Amino acid sequence: MGIFDAINISASGLTAQRMRMDIISKNIANANTTRTDNGLPYRRQVVVFEEHKSDVPFSAYLTRESRRLIQGDGVKVTAIKEDNGPYKRVYDPGHPDADKEGYVLMPNVDIVTEMVNMISATRAYEANVTVLNGTKGMAMKALEIGRG
């Protein structure tokens, strides 16, 4: 693994966590949206990550020499899916979207869960920044060795 591979892997992690934080922010912003364009309450969204790998055929795994060439290339966002969990039912007969019994369907967004996810995404982002800074520091030290 070269120094630029480490930078690229950290950059992919930064990009993925930033996307995750954006989706979490969208969930929090829509926690009280009872009617979207499709007429239903907002559905919580979740980011799906996957390891980003080089396209290497399975046969390459069979030889011992090729194993040293196969490395992960970071992470990528493969999808943003809707959480199909049930909507919350809240009794609010004065709400314009209330049904005959006075219940309103609210989004399936739990603010506490979203805040925990936001803290997790922030920490993962910070870890990638730390790795990026460490890699940069190693590169600078290598350049200093070359000058001396």
Molecular structure report:
- The protein is of the alpha+beta class and 148 residues long.
- The protein has one domain.
- Helices cover 46% and strands 19% of the residues.
- The chain contains three helices and four strands.
- It has helices at 3-29, 64-67, 111-147; strands at residues 45-53, 72-82, 88-91, 103-106.
- Strands 1-2 form a two-stranded antiparallel ribbon. Strands 3-4 form a two-stranded antiparallel sheet.
- α1 packs antiparallel against α3.
Biggest beta-sheet profile? 2 strands, antiparallel
- Kindly state the mean pLDDT as a whole number? 88
Structural class: alpha+beta
- The amount of helix comes to 40-55%
> How many β-strands, per DSSP?
4
What is the ordering of alpha helices and beta strands? HEHEEEH
N-C termini distance: 25 Å
Strand content: 15-25%
Query: How many independent structural domains?
Result: 1
* DSSP summary: helix tally: 3
Uncertain segments: none
Short description:
By secondary structure, this protein is α+β, with helices and mostly antiparallel strands. It has helices at 3-29, 64-67, 111-147; strands at residues 45-53, 72-82, 88-91, 103-106. Helix 1 packs antiparallel against helix 3 (111-147).
Structural features:
alpha+beta, elongated
